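To the wet lab folks,

You asked to see what we're planning to order before we commit. Fair enough. Below is the target structure as tokens, and below that is the sequence we designed to fit it. If anything looks off to you, flag it before the synthesis order goes out.
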């Protein structure tokens, strides 16, 4: 069964939401669900298919909820229920991928449009809503939440995460590289280690990168990202051009992500490690650049994550946002 790309985005934003801790905003998840609704996102639903029907149907993936099969009697396909209380109320589990579903190994499953399910649920009196990916990082979709998601206006979002870019589930992770693009220490070393030697082969073909610019490669063994965007931050010198070059790293990375169809991107604190950029200055430049980029792209939705590998990085952003 093919994985729906919009469902994959929902799965990724859900992972990051859980990864980012209890104060994290669910906006990226709502953006992804809303994008899915607009693009006929398919989810998997568990069904109880009577034996006789499974024998009649050549390809069970094509069965839709509500289909009626006529044999001697009329047989309806029923959705699997998760009981919610003793009064017969229930939730219906939905899944973004077979991997999610298989976390508990259950049999009959069909593809279904999320939009159609959202429309249908209003009519099901005893159904309280859906639970997306109930076995792991779940999203409760009560009827009230569904109503607010359906009318939700997508908006680009910037989240601050305490953690490593290498762990993020996004379309692109950004690498704080050097001009050779052939690997190094810090996050560059961690990314090359996780992605494997094929990354180095592709990087060799790129023939380096100037400070402030960005180049893109595949993510190879980094399973939960599609691309790596390599950008070269300035080595801190205290001169005015440092700020322009650092800002260019963020802007060029975002432009490259957009050009490659990405809707989510995770940044490390470029230049704030080995290259010695003072944290508070770098935090302000990165934040202002991303906000400006959002303003310049009002019709694009990008979920941006700033990954703070050290507490001090997150503190710098907290201080900055508290003062705005
Ligand atoms: N995993 C995730 N993030 C990390 C890790 C890691 N293992 N190590 C550091 N960070 P840095 P720069 C975060 O030093 O200052 C390399 O040798 C760190 O907390 O990796 O741009 C390159 O090849 C900070 O937020 O990069 C260059 O020569 C961010 O990653 C040079 O370092 C950037 O710190 C680039 O220096």
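Sequence we intend to order:
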């Amino acid at each position: 069964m093919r994985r729906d790309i919009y469902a994959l985005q929902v799965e990724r934003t859900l992972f990051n939401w859980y990864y980012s801790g209890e104060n994290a905003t669910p906006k990226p998840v709502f953006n992804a669900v809303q994008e899915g609704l607009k693009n006929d996102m398919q989810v998997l639903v568990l069904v109880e298919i009577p034996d006789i029907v499974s024998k009649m149907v050549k390809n069970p993936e094509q069965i839709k909820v509500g289909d009626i099969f006529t044999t001697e009697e009329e047989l309806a396909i029923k959705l699997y229920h998760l009981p919610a209380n003793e009064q017969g109320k229930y939730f219906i589990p939905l899944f973004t991928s077979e991997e999610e579903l298989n976390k508990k190994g259950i049999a009959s499953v069909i593809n279904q449009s999320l939009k159609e399910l959202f429309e249908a649920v209003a009519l099901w009196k005893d159904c309280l809503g859906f639970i997306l990916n109930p076995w792991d990082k779940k999203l409760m979709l009560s009827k009230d939440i569904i109503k607010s998601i359906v009318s939700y206006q997508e908006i680009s979002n910037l989240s601050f995460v305490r953690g490593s870019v290498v762990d993020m589930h996004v379309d692109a992770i950004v690498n704080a590289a050097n001009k050779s693009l052939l690997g190094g220490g810090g996050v560059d070393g961690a990314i090359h280690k996780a992605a494997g030697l094929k990354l180095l082969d592709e990087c060799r073909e790129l023939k380096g990168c100037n400070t402030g610019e960005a180049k893109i490669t595949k993510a190879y063994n980094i399973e939960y990202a599609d691309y790596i965007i390599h950008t070269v931050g300035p080595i801190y010198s205290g001169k005015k051009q440092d700020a322009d070059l650092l800002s260019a790293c963020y802007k060029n990375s975002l432009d490259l992500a957009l050009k490659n169809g990405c809707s989510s991107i995770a940044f490390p604190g470029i230049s704030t490690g080995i290259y010695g950029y003072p944290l508070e200055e770098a935090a302000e430049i990165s934040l202002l650049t991303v906000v400006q980029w959002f303003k310049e792209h009002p019709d694009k939705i990008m979920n941006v994550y700033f990954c703070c590998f050290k507490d001090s990085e997150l503190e710098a952003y907290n201080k900055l946002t508290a003062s705005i």
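Structural context that might help your review: The pocket of AR6 is lined by residues 164-166, 176-178, 184-188, 190, 233, 268-275, 309-310, 313 (CB under 6 Å). DSSP finds eleven helices and 15 strands in the chain.

Thanks,
Computational group
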